[in-house]
Amino acid sequence: MPLDKATLHVLRKARLPLGIEELRGELLAHFGDALEPPPVLSELTVLVTKLGTYEVDAGKVDVRRRRSIETKAQVVADPLPLELRTVDPGERTCRILQGAAERDGFRLVVASPADHSDIGKSLVKCLGDGASHVSFED
């Protein structure tokens, strides 16, 4: 296996920073005699530097700190989906409950005591036939 590809493989899996001696040991442990050419410390240091993503500082291999990432000058948020811009939250709730009403079973809507009667009546109106409002206060 070519030394540059083997080095990239080991560095991508390694926990950096990694000593250059440790890198050589990892290369030999992973690939052994299959490496072409065998890793020599001086050549390994030059190879790691040429890879571009990594740097060798004081015998340790680490990710370059001088890399820059170009970003857009201004980040623009995605527009809200159409259904969230045009549909009233009450209507959206009604559609969700209508879809759920088509399935078996029942749905229990819990509301605060002060709003219970008004919300229950509006849901019955929204859901139509088959919906009922039960209140212990009426």
Describe the structure.
This protein is mainly α and 138 residues long. Helix content is 46%, strand content 7%. It is built from six helices and three strands. The chain has helices at 3-13, 20-31, 41-50, 82-86, 89-101, 116-127, and strands at 18-19, 54-57, 60-63. A three-stranded antiparallel sheet has the order 1-3-2. Helix 1 packs across helix 2. The longest helix has 13 residues, at 89-101. The chain starts with a helix and ends in an 11-residue tail after the last helix. The mean pLDDT is 80.
Radius of gyration: 33 Å
| Strand line-up of the largest beta sheet | 1-3-2
List the total number of helices. Answer: 6
Average per-residue pLDDT, rounded, comes to 80
Residue share in β-strands: 5-15%
Flag low-confidence runs.
Answer: none
Short description:
With 138 residues, the chain is mostly helical. It is built from six helices and three strands, in the order αβααββααα.
Keywords:
about 140 residues, mainly alpha, three-stranded antiparallel beta sheet, about 5% strand, rod-shaped
How is this fold's topology laid out?
Blueprint (H helix, E strand, L loop, with lengths): L2 H11 L4 E2 H12 L9 H10 L3 E4 L2 E4 L18 H5 L2 H13 L14 H12 L11
Antiparallel strand pairs: 1-3, 2-3
Helix pairs in contact: 1-2
